Here is the input.
Amino acid sequence: MARTQGSRAEITGPLIREQALRLFARHGYAAVSMRQIASAVGVQAGALYTYTPDKQALLADLLSDHMTRLLGAWQDDPDRSPLDRLERFVRFHIAFSLDHPDSVFLSYMELRNLSPDNHAEIAALRRRYEDALACILRAGQAAGVMTVPDIRLTAMALIAMLTGVTNWYREGGRLDRSRVADIYWDLVKRAVGA
Here is the structure.
């Protein structure tokens, strides 16, 4: 298959990433070939290597981009009360996850397919995000408004619970996003003894 007439690098590069993300999320990283990604983009398979060294680098780049965007979008305000900060985190995480379901799925389900070096890089980014929540939990415990037996474990459990919304939520379903966030906030408050 020849390159799509009129295609340009500034269009083709992002399109490769978009199609790889979609295909990896739908079929799993191991089941998707570079040839399938090229076909979805409308270029020859060899053309992909102009944009990425290999499929592993493409996966690592997608996961790194997701975590970098997540970290960049989250803005904590230490001047607020710990409960207010926690509520903001809960609502932010749910909204961000629902806005980026394929990236969220990939970042949790495909870590196992990363090389050790790439895994270490993504794990460090994830740890920074978990640390942001742990900081809030520590502040809540210090202020006496939360009871958390293990801060790191609680942070990871809460993030897993919040991220799970992408597995079942459907636009137009029984609950809208706002109501889902309200219910999750209530669950989180109970989980931290608030």
About this structure: The chain has a mean pLDDT of 91.
